[in-house]
Design a protein that fits this description.
Structural class: alpha/beta
Distance between the termini: 32 Å
Strand content: 15-25%
Largest sheet: 7 strands, parallel
Helix content: 25-40%
Oligomer: single chain
Bound molecules: pyridoxal-5'-phosphate
Shape: elongated
């Protein structure tokens, strides 16, 4: 007879993304903490002067959290502006009835310009030639002009003032905003501070020149998350907050030293698929990278690198939490499965829940831990979490 005792359903879920009727939560899923998100919104809002609005970056599925879920919640608590990387992300939000301004930060191909007007999305002017393309489309398009003050990625170069004036003269562009991106605002070495202050100075010089020429000043924005933390005086009309909204900064050190209180929004959980004994000398996983040297009990988790669990966490680099215990990942992480050592944990059974990011008992694994273990930043760890993962509020 089937034993049902090991099956625990995920409690108090408010919403599932996947629209399969009767689907519970899948093999591995993301739990979103709405209270933490609201906490971060108020912490960050409190840092900004009254005239400065949050413009959350919900690109890349809101850094893996789920763009529609996060944006809906933000809309409900009064957030009225968003930014995304691509036009398709903006369309997805509109199709789910997200209200307010949506700014496309990156490139949109001219064949997709019709989507900008159809879905009321504002487009970034990535340089002067691109402004010409937008203008040639023929119908009015709302834009924010990017100004390149030193990152040399997107935006018109600030020394090309004549071309920036020309953009203001283009008859089919409704210029709603102008912004720059600070490329070294996350490190406070004297050199980087000097560089960032020059970026800020140069941006305001563009603003002043436009005013001198009599152009109306559009909405301005310079800050991303680190700008809010490290350069609070640069708050203008919007703050394009991404990673901080999700409750961490890019590294553990920055997160621990952050003067603005933040709480992680996301937990990553997974079902134990199978538990088995492994005898001394037996191998676990692809390539026989792990060989048991004693009698062991291992659990196979229903998550793999295709879900965004970095394969570089293989062979003991990464860990999972089970029943309040911290245990190592053993062998190579597979595309859809991961093995952990549960030898010393009593009563682990198929259907139990393991935690990859989040808390279990007294133990916690954060996105910062995984970023550190894999030599990257939390932004990458979170934004790579895969589309197979169910996302839900708890
Ligand atoms: C992604 C992005 C942001 C948000 O950055 P965070 O560091 O995550 O806050 C802001 N501005 C631009 C232009 C971006 O591309």
């Amino acid at each position: 007879m089937m034993k049902n005792t090991s099956y625990k359903s995920v409690e108090s879920k408010r919403f599932l993304v996947n629209e399969i009727p009767g689907f519970s939560c899948g093999r591995a899923w993301i739990e979103l903490d709405g209270a933490a998100l609201r906490y971060n919104v108020s912490s960050l809002t409190a840092e900004l002067p009254e005239h400065c609005e949050l413009m959350p970056a919900v690109k890349a599925e809101a850094y893996g959290h789920g763009a529609v879920l996060i944006s809906k919640e933000l809309n409900q608590i009064g957030v009225q502006a968003f930014c995304v990387a691509g036009v398709a992300e903006g369309v997805q939000l509109r199709k789910h009835k997200i209200k307010g301004e949506i700014l496309v930060l990156g490139y949109t191909h001219p064949e997709d310009f019709h989507l900008l007007s159809q879905y009321h999305l504002a487009q970034t002017v990535v340089d002067y030639p691109y402004a010409c393309l937008l203008n040639e489309y023929g119908k009015t398009i709302s834009v924010h002009i990017g100004i390149d003050t030193g990152m040399h990625r997107l935006g018109e170069r600030l020394e090309n003032m004549d071309q920036i004036y020309e953009i203001f003269e283009m008859e089919n562009l409704r210029i709603e905003g102008m912004f720059t991106h600070l490329s070294a605002d996350d490190t406070m070495t004297p050199e980087d501070q000097e560089f960032t202050n020059a970026q800020i100075h140069d941006f305001y010089e563009v603003v002043e020149k436009l005013k001198e020429q009599g152009y109306p000043c559009p909405k301005l924005h310079l800050q991303a998350s680190y700008g809010i933390v490290n350069y609070p005086d640069t708050a203008e009309d919007y703050a394009r907050v991404g990673i901080a909204l999700y409750g961490v900064l890019s590294t553990r050190e920055d997160t621990e030293n952050c003067r603005i209180p933040l709480k992680p929004v996301l937990s990553l959980k997974v079902r134990v698929a199978s538990v088995r004994n492994v005898h001394p000398g037996e191998a676990v996983g692809y390539g026989r990278q792990f060989i048991a040297d004693h009698e062991m009990k291992i659990a196979t988790l229903a998550i793999g690198y295709a879900d965004g669990l970095p394969r570089t966490l293989s062979n003991g680099v990464g860990e999972a939490l089970v029943k309040g215990y911290r245990v190592p990942i053993i062998g190579r992480i597979c595309m859809d499965q991961t093995m952990i050592d549960v030898t010393d944990i009593p009563d682990v059974q198929s259907g139990d829940i393991a935690v990859i990011i989040g808390t279990s008992g007294e133990e916690e694994i954060t996105a910062c831990d995984i970023a550190e273990q894999t030599g990257t930043i939390t932004n990458e760890v979170l934004s790579r979490l895969g589309s197979r993962l169910e996302r839900m509020w708890v």
